[in-house]
Specification:
Mean pLDDT of chain A: 94
Shape of chain A: globular
Low-confidence stretches of chain A: 1-9
Strand order of the largest sheet of chain A: 15-12-14-13-17-18-16
Number of helices of chain A: 16
Oligomer: homodimer
Largest sheet of chain A: 7 strands, antiparallel
């Protein structure tokens, strides 16, 4: 997945911490073969889906238990060495990069379901469980976990970045769906941040503080999630529109009318072409909305009818339905493959993804101006969006060896973020801040809020060893 | 509302801070007549709905703007004097009590809607706006704010305690419904914790950290909330059952089947009698569920049908419907008046309210054992519950001058909390920790999590002036 070229001016300026031999020896003594200093392993853990290139971590340990994680963190704390948790490596913002050196703690082998409580609609998992694995393992309960960021990400990574995706318009994000956590703190202690009760007013909301903290405050070792009954009826539909504006205005009205739509995704005409070519589909080459309705048979019918009426007001074509599970899977796979389809449309290219999210009434303004700007730039791009939430992604397709194109993409992104902030939105709806959006975060929240984050970070991680160098400069 | 007697052994042991004259003079110079040291005003701000009695604050200032709050906090910080924000005084846990002295900042005059964005389903309010006022002022938009803790609490107070109430089973709690905040920090700075975007991964979730922090980390001066379209159809129904167990088992099945019921409240037979006497109603004298369904006309019908089938399986009687808004209001007013009805049932008594919340599958175990225990004690009580969330409240009705009864109520509460924690629940579903539940919090989360809360508190409020002495001992 990593492009061959390197965006050299994208490398953050960093001070690399040296991991002392005594610490490496202690890790090897504890982890045995589960501690690796092989370059290939370190390199695999020293990159993600972002465009950054930095030196890999000094070692990788493969944790198999909370005790393993606590051991590694305690040792790292003694030696003031950075630790970076690693799930499947699907971050887009450089979260996993060892910008200050240190070690990577791979939790992908912590992939057990700790307990399933179908009667309470909850499950507790280890952080290395991926969302597809989770849904596979709970299939027999008649329940499902709806959060779907596209990639088959780990639940730990999704929690750490406050991920969301296509179903969030109905089911919320990781913010709403993580009930409680077990966390290894910066000193290597193990704490619990909540219970399985559906709601609680018991002190500070440490769960929500950890969710989205990108590994900078602690490492999640158990995650209790909400589950949902599989809807009695599901149907998916595609509707194409004469313009992006028509598709967006349809979406705005669906949301404002309170239709409990489960998914409403925009795909622009560029991306439709790419997806058709990649997945051998024959979607009509127009901007389209890909939708899904969940509920009782009557409820789904009612929702679909309302949406169809709204769509036709804006010139939308008749719905094309995907009623069997196979058809639905094919459609959503196409959506999830938009990224890969786009990458393949320009061989050797690398995609830089944007992630703005604005209040729904501002979506048309934000999106249309950004499309005009991107079109005028001449840079190829794809455009997909969780438009029901006001969240969309441009993917600028760069020749990684072309500094000018890179500069252009950066300019487009900056202009887009500035526009989203003017419209009371955020620079990141679901990818997180990581390395790339530190300055955007500062502009968005102001120095007062970032100072508060920094104060919390310093208090909870005084040695600055928990995934340092991310979100803000300490 | 305060009972005549005092529960003297309930007074927390505290060190009272002396407010220096120079600070009082500066407050008077800034606030003029909006700064009061009159005993009656101070006493009114030195108590809430809890059973504690402590000396009142040294002064009360009536803030009319964020700048007023910032001024008072900055001054308090200079003099290391505690500040306690005050909305309408409906806390049940002693949140508003000046246990370490200091001044009360009354925000009830900050009662303006700052901006309404109906097209985005958001509103930004000042903290002194009450929930009824909010719904009154946005009536013409076709939207409503669902969180309803019973009391006409201020939005500031509801946010600070992470309140919820009868509608939470469908719409969530303040945790899910506060989008962003403006906060005056312990140093008197003004920060913003988010935007109006529906979701965001932009750094630490300061919004959720502040929600439920009970005034100990900052004072909220603007609150951005989610709103919802008024349902096309609403219907309410009462169903009585042969036993509490039958009512609870019905609720459990409703939730497990994923019925999107908007309200499902349990009222035990004691409380039905009290409510009938108080509100001149003729509810059947059996345990009952009070329910509300929101949706399209067809959706509401479908939900009601499913629930009726479940109820009849457990011996529930036929639904009695309240279809007109007037009938619904009468029914829900009766529910909300349960507390007052209970108080009146034993003249001169005081109610001690419990607030446990357990996973729904544990609800029957938790509730039935606790009912047996309460019955065996001989102490009069009322029992109501937001049972769809696994949350319920016993109100033990004490003679405030009878130490033995008080001891008994404490024992019952301790036994109830211990039971709820064994069943993976929480000591407080919606009232907050305040003064009374500090030890319960410690048992519930363990010292590691409370240490983390304390570390955050010390970092963000190094002088310990923000509503000190609440949630945990610093």
């Amino acid at each position: 997945m990593n492009a061959p070229g390197q965006l050299s001016h994208f490398v953050p300026k960093v001070t690399q911490c040296v991991v002392p031999t005594v610490m490496l020896d202690a890790l090897k003594a504890h982890f045995g073969e589960r501690c690796s200093t092989a370059l290939v392993v370190r390199e695999q853990h020293g990159r993600d889906e972002s465009a950054y290139t930095v030196p890999p971590p000094a070692a990788v340990v493969f944790a198999e238990s909370t005790a393993d994680v606590a051991f590694a963190v305690k040792l790292a704390s003694e030696h003031s060495v950075p630790v970076i948790p690693f799930g499947v490596g699907s971050s887009l913002e450089g979260h996993l990069l060892a910008v200050m050196g240190g070690i990577s703690i791979d939790v992908s082998r912590m992939n057990q379901l700790v307990s399933i409580n179908p009667e309470d609609l909850t499950v507790t998992v280890q952080p290395g469980v991926t969302r597809k694995q989770l849904n596979e393992e709970i299939k027999s309960t008649g329940l499902f976990f709806p959060i779907d960021p596209g990639a088959d990400a780990s639940i730990g990574g999704m929690s750490a970045t406050r991920a969301s995706g296509t179903n969030a318009v109905r089911y919320g994000t990781m913010r709403e769906n993580v009930l409680a956590l077990e966390v290894v703190t910066a000193s290597g202690e193990v704490i619990r941040t909540g219970t399985r009760a559906k709601k609680s007013s018991a002190g500070y909301d440490l769960t929500r503080l950890m969710v989205g903290s990108e590994g900078t405050l602690g490492i999640m070792t158990e995650i209790t999630l909400k589950l949902y009954p599989l809807p009695e009826a599901i149907s998916a539909a595609v509707c194409s529109f004469p313009s992006i504006e028509a598709a967006v205005r349809t979406t705005i009205q669906i949301i404002q009318m309170g239709v409990p739509i489960a998914r409403v995704e925009l795909i622009d005409v560029n991306t439709v072409r790419m997806v058709n070519a990649y997945a051998k589909l024959s979607l009509r080459e127009e901007p389209l909305l890909l939708m899904e309705f969940h509920g009782s048979p009557a409820g789904v019918k009612e929702q679909a009818q309302t949406v169809q009426e709204i769509a036709s007001e804006f010139g939308g074509n008749a719905f094309e339905w995907a009623t069997t599970p196979e058809e639905r899977t094919r459609l959503w796979t196409a959506r999830h493959n938009a990224y890969f389809a786009a990458i393949q449309s320009r061989p050797g290219c690398r995609a830089i993804s944007t992630d703005t999210c604005v209040p729904i009434s501002r979506l048309a303004d934000c999106l249309l101006d950004s499309v005009s700007e991107a079109d005028a730039s001449g840079l190829p791009y794809f455009l997909v969006g969780h438009v029901g939430d006001g969240n969309f992604h441009f993917g600028y397709l760069l020749d990684p060896n072309n500094a000018q194109e890179h500069e252009l993409a950066e300019q487009l992104n900056q202009s887009l973020v500035a526009r989203a902030l003017r419209l009371e939105g955020t620079c990141t709806g679901e990818h997180g801040v990581g390395l790339h959006k530190m300055d955007f975060l500062l502009t968005e929240t102001g120095s007062g809020a970032v100072d508060m984050m920094r104060t919390i970070k310093r208090a909870l991680d005084p040695k600055n060893i928990m995934n340092p160098g991310k979100i803000f400069r300490v």
